[in-house]
Amino acid sequence: MELLKNKIIExxxxxSDQVLKVDSFLNHQVDPRLMREIGRTFASLFSESGITKIVxxxxxxxxxxxxxxxxxxxxxxxxxKRKSLTLQDDLYTEKVYSFTKKEESEVSVSRxxxxxxxxxxxxxxxxxxxxAALAMARIVEQxxxxxxxxxxxxxxxxxxxxxxxxxxxxxxxxxxxxxxxxSGSVVFAD
Amino acid sequence: MELLKNKIIExxxxxSDQVLKVDSFLNHQVDPRLMREIGRTFASLFSESGITKIVxxxxxxxxxxxxxxxxxxxxxxxxxKRKSLTLQDDLYTEKVYSFTKKEESEVSVSRxxxxxxxxxxxxxxxxxxxxAALAMARIVEQxxxxxxxxxxxxxxxxxxxxxxxxxxxxxxxxxxxxxxxxSGSVVFAD
Lengths: 190, 190
Hints:
The structure is a homodimer. By secondary structure, chain A is an alpha/beta fold. Helix content of chain A is about 30%, strand content about 35%. Chain A is built from five helices and eleven strands; from the N terminus they run H-E-E-E-H-E-H-E-E-E-E-H-E-H-E-E. Chain A has a six-stranded mixed beta sheet with strand order 5-4-8-9-10-11, with helices on both faces. Chain A has a two-stranded antiparallel ribbon with strand order 1-2. In chain A, strand 8 (about 120-125), helix 4 (about 130-140) and strand 9 form a beta-alpha-beta unit. In chain A, about 45% of the residues are buried. The model of chain A has no long low-confidence stretch (mean pLDDT about 95). The interface between A and B is large, with 40 and 40 residues. Strand 5 of chain A pairs antiparallel with strand 3 (about 30) of chain B, so a sheet runs across the interface.
């Protein structure tokens, strides 16, 4: 997706060989027009997949997921990272390790929001080691629903996430694939 | 906003005199079409306010805020509730007490995202005691920017939030105002 790649080149900050900071348009400040285009692109890629629901993880996945849901006309669930007082029982819960934050957290989805017949599109802002996407997929499968596809905004293709996801048989579509962040510069994979 | 009020009546769960659970369309699962209408309504209410930026707090504020940003064509910042490895320095930080979670947390916004000339629209999913909105307002004012308005999806009008915000001189627009949750039923204020 050229618009996204240009934005990464213009505004992305390479903090290390592993970390790309895109706080100005995705992870802290959001560019709503770019999110709209991202949503349209995911909706087009998965238009034939019979999607009935989208699942993402708070917080950075929400904007692209909601825009995709708008175009596919399906509800969007954001998995919660912590339990709150009004979200306590009847949850599907999975552990997810964040390499960025160097900590394990739990993500959970209310059982009543997923059904056996659902065909679920998983959306996330970043794909690195695939931990977050695999946790979402396990939640969907706990519910007896089907992972019908995985849409990633930015994939760090030099890590092994997409390989792991494809080993599970999932279709993965990434809008920008980064081959390397070495020497402080972004090299795309294609 | 009639569409929102109908959704609250149909799908809202009154958990106590104080707590309304709207997990099926706002706080855990999101209805993208409803969010689009909410965004259009806020954009229309504040179309003459010269808004240059929207600020919300992760996570439930993001969907309505991004839809509003789409229509006003301005960037949307979501204040982060915790510091992460890629979000560590040069932050405006304020404390906010959550009566739902019964705990104090910190919200922060990167200094580089707010400028003196900014006219900021604050968006949040719920207004109860006004703690979250006041924390966002203090962050905006730390940056020397102006709070040009506050847009609330659901106001618990039986609590004192909007009064506190108006005492500070802020214009507050709530799309649904709840007068009471007593006896397990929702009574709107207007």
